[in-house]
Specification:
Layout lengths: L1 E5 L2 E2 L4 H15 L3 E6 L1 E2 L1 H6 L6 E4 L8 H9 L12 E4 L2 H6 L6 E6 L4 H4 L2 H8 L6 H26 L2 E4 L2 H11 L4 E2 L20 E4 L8 H8 L8 E4 L4 H14 L3 E5 L3 H10 L2 E4 L8 H8 L4 E4 L15 E4 L4 H13 L2 H4 L1 H6 L6 H20 L1
Parallel strand pairs: 1-3, 1-6, 2-4, 3-5, 6-7, 7-8, 8-9, 10-11, 10-13, 11-12, 13-14, 14-15
């Protein structure tokens, strides 16, 4: 059987891109023919997000260097989907749902979150749109203001009409089931095997965080929290950041007397070294759908501090063992929890338990449940 995985664009270094590559590998290992479909991709992203030996097809009929143009044309039907036949489609977004709506095949959703451009409030929509390069998100927000009611109804119908729906954690599952009124199956993102304690260590004491450095991730909150620390360690940040946001964070850090260091986008090998060497990993994004970076830190033996706001990141926590949950959006309590990790020497004391706590997100664990649900669906459809 042939299964096509489809997502609008593969031009960013993110968790969804890595997840798609892992899903493709799982399906290939089970003997399925797999093809990844997208409207535009970046060769460097494919290489670094581990799409080697996976067939990736640009479905745009008219290819341009303008990402928003390629996406718009694909959404308008100027694409090659009519030439592609598959037994099933594994779909990762609302626009992708829309593009394959007329295909006579089994349809499976993997949903990281509801479409932000449709369901966020006005302020959050603008912040979300500013948290990626290009204008594609800004265009989608404008569309939501113009025809948001119709788009919401369409989204509801497409999701409900699909044959199987995965959610990336319990937090997301609960929210999606309430929104769509349809059953969701939890399937966590996959923690890559490369994340394990490094033999190479960085001979410095520091607090660490890693992700795309964008306003929606609330990096200002990290700096605010670190300003209340008793243990005044520097904050090291890994990830892409645009110059204007970097200057804003540097100015805030200077005002709050927090030492901060931007490391840029690290290689995976260097990232593992920083995870392994840090005193503690912190993550201040509120009610995040899941977030693999805390799990990556745990796999490297470093405890975490995150908000106890019920978000997906809190599902990774064994309170007082692999880290702490801070009172939601209380910067002083967040700082206290960081100080607790450092002063109680949690990293050294609980090293084995910290690493073990990440195992439930391993490739093998996730694959077992994910493939089982797909096989069950495909078998029932054949009958």
């Amino acid at each position: 059987m042939k299964i096509c995985l489809i997502y609008d664009f593969l031009t960013e270094y993110g968790g969804l891109e890595r997840l798609m590559a892992n899903h493709a590998k799982m399906l290939i290992e089970e003997g399925y023919e797999v093809e990844v479909l997208t409207c535009i991709y970046d060769d460097d992203v494919l290489k670094k997000m581990c799409f080697e030996n996976i067939k990736v097809t640009n479905i745009s009929k008219i290819k341009t260097k303008k990402e928003a143009v390629n996406l718009s044309l694909c959404y308008l039907g100027i694409n090659k989907l009519s030439e592609i036949n598959a037994d099933a489609f594994l779909i990762y977004s609302f626009p992708s749902n829309y593009m394959v709506r007329k295909k006579k095949a089994i349809k499976i959703n993997y949903i990281n979150h509801f479409p932000h451009f449709l369901y966020f409030n006005r302020k959050d929509k603008i912040e979300w749109a500013s948290s990626t390069h290009g204008i594609k998100r800004h265009v989608s927000v404008i569309m939501s203001w113009l025809i948001g009611g119709w788009l919401k109804k369409l989204d509801m119908n497409l999701v409900k009409g699909n044959d199987l729906r995965f959610a990336n954690c319990d937090f997301t599952k609960k929210g999606l089931e309430k929104l769509y009124g349809s059953k969701m199956i939890k399937s966590y993102p996959v923690l890559d095997v490369v994340f394990k304690p490094s033999k190479e260590k960085i001979n410095e004491r520091f607090i660490f965080s890693s992700s795309r450095i964008v306003p929606s991730k609330k990096y200002e909150w990290m700096i605010e929290s670190c300003s209340h620390l008793k243990n005044k360690l520097p904050l090291y940040l890994s990830g892409q950041v645009d110059e204007s946001y970097r200057k804003k964070l540097e100015n805030l850090a200077k005002k709050k007397k927090v030492k901060i260091k931007f490391l840029g986008r690290l290689t995976t090998e260097n990232l593992v070294e920083y995870y392994t060497s840090a005193e503690v990993f912190i993550f201040t994004t509120p009610k995040f759908e899941f977030g693999l970076v805390p799990a990556e830190s745990l796999a490297c033996g470093t405890p975490i501090v995150v908000w106890g706001d019920g978000g997906g990141q809190s599902e990774q926590m064994l309170e007082g063992i692999n880290g702490y949950l801070a009172k939601p959006y209380d910067f002083k309590d967040f700082a206290r929890k960081i100080d607790n990790v450092i002063e109680l020497n949690l990293k050294k004391r609980n090293k084995s338990e910290i690493i073990t706590s990440s195992k439930r997100f391993s490739y093998g664990e996730i694959k077992t449940g994910f493939i089982s649900e797909i096989k069950k669906l495909l078998s029932n459809k054949k009958l």
